[in-house]
Write a structure and sequence with these properties.
Elements (H helix, E strand, L loop, with lengths): L1 H9 L8 H5 L2 H10 L2 E3 L5 E3 L2 H9 L4 E2 L3 H8 L3 H8 L8 H12 L2 H5 L2 H18 L4 H6 L1 H10 L10 H10 L7 H27 L8 H7 L9 H32 L1 H9 L4 H11 L5 E6 L3 E3 L2 E3 L4 E5 H4 L23 E4 L2
Parallel strand pairs: 2-7
Antiparallel strand pairs: 1-2, 3-4, 4-7, 5-6
Helix pairs in contact: 1-3, 5-6, 7-14, 9-11, 11-15, 12-13, 12-15, 13-15, 15-17
Length: 354
């Protein structure tokens, strides 16, 4: 078994993932963690799987950069995808990241978030009623994917009749973030960015002419918001509206889908939650740990730096395997067990920022 694990770690190639890996990546993650926790891939990228190494990388923003211009330039060229991803909050370093994040978080007022609760309850009740009427459902299409689109649509006050293309635009843009991108996938991603920007330009122009309730309308707050005399530029505004949808769409859909599957596969935990609904908060945290919505993160070294006992040169691409770190036994006792009451649960589903 040990020899098999070593072979599994030795042969791992992020650019040639197998159907078996996609079905269950955790044996591979374990093999890497135990045998090559700082794995050098054929393309020069370093792949990290230990919890402590990921935390160290996330916290060392001086040596490990989130800026993706160097990585994305050869991948996308001078295209809408390149402009979008290098303008988005998540792929920038301080001070730009700090300024944009402050302006966006300032727009997400507690009142705006609290004001969505009633509509969200109605939405979920309606989805469940439709499923009950059919007697069956496709979990993602009929339930999980519908929720984040409507929530973000409500947040930005996108008219219901205009929400149809949002999900496909989001999927096309996010699909182009895969390690290997075909020309067709890139073309769909670029087209989606172009179409999404054109729509947002129209939506923002309408909102400027007729602002919404600034206490509840996040788009109006993003347009009018100011911190220390600064506002979002038009480019930052448009691209980070796309980012808000993309960030909330895929991760939330995955959380709902993965969480419900985990409950179905662990009937004891499902019954435990039914009997003790007060466990819902720790249950959601465990869903995020057990099947992380986002499996991978990326950084680029800005200087020579050591991680996990391995010295990396400046300019090294680093992939952080969140899914592996969230099942590291050095951090989580009995990590392969789905436990809806697990505490503490310092998972890395949101890196170290949440």
């Amino acid at each position: 078994m040990n020899a098999d694990a070593k072979e599994l770690a030795s042969s791992f190639d992020l650019e040639k993932l197998t159907p078996e890996f996609y079905d269950n990546p955790y044996p591979t993650y374990r093999a890497l963690r135990e045998n090559e926790p700082v794995k050098r891939l054929r393309n020069g990228t370093v792949f990290l799987t230990r919890y402590d190494d990921l935390v160290t990388t996330y916290k060392n923003t001086k040596s490990f950069s989130s800026d993706k211009k160097r990585e994305f330039a050869p991948k996308y060229g001078d295209t809408p995808l390149y402009e979008h991803h290098t303008t988005s909050l998540v792929f920038n370093d301080p001070p730009s990241h700090t300024r944009v994040r402050r302006l966006i978080m300032g727009a997400l007022s507690p009142r705006a978030i609290a004001g969505m609760e009633g509509d969200l309850i109605k939405l979920i009740d309606g989805l469940l009623d439709a499923i009950a009427a059919k007697g069956a459902c496709e979990l993602i299409e009929d339930f999980a994917a519908s929720i984040p689109i409507e929530v973000i649509g409500n947040l930005l006050d996108v008219p219901h009749e205009e929400r149809g293309p949002l999900r496909n635009w989001s999927l096309a843009i996010l699909g182009a973030l895969e390690p290997v991108v075909s020309p067709d996938v890139a073309a769909r991603g670029n087209s989606a960015v172009t179409d999404f920007l054109a729509y947002l330009e129209t939506l923002v122009a309408r909102r400027r002419q007729k602002p919404g309730n600034a206490e509840r309308d996040v788009l109006t707050r993003l347009i009018e918001g100011e911190e220390n005399g600064e506002r979002l530029t038009e480019k930052e505004l448009l691209h980070n509206c796309i980012f808000l949808l993309n960030a909330g769409h895929e991760t939330t859909t995955n959380l709902i889908g993965n969480g419900l599957v985990a409950l179905d596969r662990n009937p004891d935990q499902k019954q435990r939650l039914i009997d003790n609904p007060g466990l819902i908060k720790t249950a959601v945290e465990e869903m995020l740990r057990y099947e992380s919505s986002n499996q991978l993160g990326n950084r680029m070294t800005t200087e020579k730096v050591e991680i996990g006992g391995v010295m990396l040169d400046a300019g090294t691409s680093v992939t952080l395997c969140i899914g592996a770190a969230n099942r590291d036994p050095a951090q989580f006792p009995d990590p392969e067990r789905f436990d809806i009451a697990r505490t503490p649960n310092r998972h890395l589903a949101f890196a170290t920022g949440a």
